[in-house]
Amino acid sequence: MKRSAIVVALALGLMAQGAMAKTLNVVSSFSVLGDIAQQVGGKHVHVDTLVGPDGDPHTFEPSPKDSALLSKADVVVVNGLGLEGWLDRLIK
C-alpha cells in the first residue's frame, strides 16, 4: 500500500510539474499593465501589449493582428471603467 501511494504521489508531482512549466500568453490593453504583468509573471508569462507606450487607449483603433493576439491569450489584463471601449468588439 505504501508503495502504491508513493507511486501515485510521484506521478501526480510529475504531472503538476508539466502543467506549471507552460508559459502563459498574456495580453494587456496598454503598456503600464503589460509591465505589471511581466513583473508579476516573470519567466512564466509572455506578454503582448495592444497599445504601446506612446499610444492612447482612449483613441486606439484595433487591427486584425490585435484580434488574433486576443484569441490566443490565456489571460487578458485590462483597466476597465470604459478605458478600453474598443475591447468588447474584439473579444466577441
Tally of helical runs: 4
Q: Mind telling me which CATH architecture this is?
A: 3-Layer(aba) Sandwich
Largest sheet: 3 strands, parallel
**Structural class, from secondary structure content?**
alpha/beta
Q: Return the CATH class.
A: Alpha Beta
Classify the helix fraction into a percent range.
40-55%
One letter per element, helices H and strands E, the order comes to HEHEHEH
Determine the CATH topology. Rossmann fold
Q: Could you name the ranges where pLDDT drops below 50 across 5 or more consecutive residues?
A: 4-11
Oligomeric state of the chains present here = single chain
Main location: other
Subcellular location: Cell envelope
Protein name: Metal ABC transporter substrate-binding protein
Family: Belongs to the bacterial solute-binding protein 9 family.
Descriptive report:
This protein is α/β, with parallel strands linked by helices and 92 residues long. The protein has a single domain (23-91), classed as 3-Layer(aba) Sandwich (Rossmann fold). It contains four helices and three strands. It has helices spanning 2-20, 31-41, 64-71, 87-91, and strands at residues 24-30, 45-51, 75-77. α2 (31-41) links the parallel β1 (24-30) and β2. It is globular, with a radius of gyration of 19 Å. Mean pLDDT is 82; it is low at 4-11. Pfam families: ZnuA.
